[in-house]
Amino acid sequence: MSNDEWAKRDASVVWHGFTQMDSYTENSPIVVDRTDGRYVIDTEGRRYFDAISSLWVTTLGHRVPELDDALIAQLQRGAHTTLLGNGNTIVVELSEALAKVVPVDEPHFLYASDGASAVEQALKIAFQFWVNRDIAGKTTFLGFGGAYHGDTIGALSLGGGGFGTSIFDPLRFPVLRAPEFADPTCFNVACRMITDHAHELAAVIIEPLVQGASGMQMCAPEDLQRLASACNTHDVLLICDEIATGFGRTGTLFASELAGIRPDLLCLGKGMTAGYLPMSATAASGAVFNAFLGPDLSEKTLYHGHSYSGNALAAAVALRHLELIEAWDVLENVRERSQELEQLLDDRIAPLTQVRETRVRGLMSGIDLAPPRDGLRWGRKASAGAVARGVLIRPIGDTVILMPPLTVTSEELHSTVRALHDSIAELGDA
Ligand SMILES: Cc1ncc(COP(=O)(O)O)c(C=O)c1O
Questions:
Q1: 135 Cα: distance to centroid of ligand 1 (angstroms)
Q2: pLDDT per residue over 204-263, tens digit each?
Q3: Which of 21, 23, 170, 271 is 20 to 30 A from residue 196's alpha carbon, by CA?
Q4: Whose CA is nearest to atom 16 of ligand 1?
Q5: Does the CA dihedral 376-380-384-386 come out positive or negative?
Q6: For ligand 1, is residue 115 a contact (CB within 6 Å)?
Q7: Residue 293: CB partners within 8 Å, gap ≥ 6?
Q8: CATH 3.40.640.10 is held by the domain 67-327
Q9: Whose C-alpha lies nearest to ligand 1, atom 14?
Q10: Global pTM?
């Protein structure tokens, strides 16, 4: 059956996220039949380099034999048992391994399945933290312009809006909003807001170093240090949302490390299981966790938890993934390929008249196109051109995103940039 026929079957029963289903089939979707290393293969056997890591989750590539083995071994011990009130050995082992590497003091991990859920957990923990300590009034949050923390209502409230989500504005709870990263006053204003509103702030939430979904907007490590220090001085919790930046994306295991900050709450997801299974987590520092200790069934308990929290299959893959990141020296590859990508974009993409700016941090990069007027859908067209050349990408508006697997080779980077160059160049001037 052809790819087009599969796409029609798909459109008749599947509702795709962030996708207008009325034009779904017109945008030449790939229906993946199987995967191979860093490539996905459609129903007609065409291969595409997965240059967005399947929406930023695939770290080592698809079908990694070591991860497959870890999954199969765990399957033979049991796929899932509840963490509500009971434990599971593989989850204990994963948590011990994570505790050694996350930039959080004396961490405890509360597991969930998606990034948005990890953020919701962090918000509820931060809110209840102050209640449990009998400190009244610290009930609001500070988020940044352009932020994205997920689609559930709490996460959406802290996000900067956009992406067509303003329809939900009446449901979003009010928060304090610092400017966007691109605004040079951003961190001065944020720090002043923390000083002025500390009495009502439960926490500040930030995507450290790179705001992914707003098209790879970047900030400096020193600004994060200033923010963390303002939070610390004024008794406001700091939540780092590392759902996109975590697990090696920026060249260190976590972006917070690169900035030398240690948040009170850390949100993890996406690359946690190398792109194999849905798993996310909220890591809470010892000081935060301890505020929830008290008599059995008391009000100090965190009354929150998901059915698949700490899924054993996901935990087994996540644990093996951590070992492989170290054994394969993946972070070194990220740093080397990052420099190479930056050079390639400077040499081949930035000079194109259709390009406004390119940005790279680790293996996260955004290429802003410069359409001469609105409505030309250049992001969509450039991506379609790249897909036709065997490189799978998905734009955010008129920003083309490149986020290849962390094990990407030099050759793959060159061929990806070549395909992108040709697809952008053919946009013409109007
Ligand atoms: C920084 C950040 N936080 C949260 C999320 C939401 O994660 P999920 O889509 O797994 O709910 C995303 C997703 O892109 C993200 O980039």
A1: 31
A2: 999 999 999 999 999 999 999 999 999 999 999 999 999 999 999 999 999 999 999 999
A3: 170
A4: 244
A5: positive
A6: yes
A7: 300
A8: yes
A9: 213
A10: 0.98
